[in-house]
Amino acid sequence: MKVVNYAAYVSAPERVAALRPAHREYVTRLHADGRLVAGGMFTDCSGALYIYETGSVAEAEQILADDPYQIGGVFADCRLKPWEIIKANPTLIA
Questions:
Q1: Region of residue 69 (left: phi > 0; alpha: psi -120 to 50; beta: else)
Q2: pLDDT digit string (tens) for 1-13?
Q3: Are the C-beta atoms of 82 and 15 separated by less than 8 Å?
Q4: How far is Cα 77 from Cα 68, in angstroms, rounded to an integer?
Q5: Is the pLDDT confidence value at 24 over 80?
Q6: What is the dihedral of CA 72, 78, 82, 86, to 10 degrees?
Q7: Is the pLDDT at 94 greater than 90, yes or no?
Q8: How many Cα atoms are found within 13 Å in the side-chain-facing hemisphere of 94?
Q9: Domains of the chain by range and CATH?
Q10: Rounded to two decimals, what is the model's pTM?
């Protein structure tokens, strides 16, 4: 099951930057474990979008709970939604 996390950051860029190394290490592990399909920051630095591969929304909630950004209070809001891919072009994802 794919679960999308639409995340908004708090208005404190210095806090986001301070936690970024730990957060990126965390998402690198998720990716290596096959639990992160894709993820990245919005170009306006207001938040990010993540697509998790999980067995349930509860698993996605735990992924979010363990994220250094969530633990450090950088996420102002996160919306987890199950998502079904109808079509995809993997050559466009870089």
A1: alpha
A2: 999 999 999 999 9
A3: no
A4: 14
A5: yes
A6: -110
A7: no
A8: 1
A9: 2-92 (3.30.70.1060)
A10: 0.92
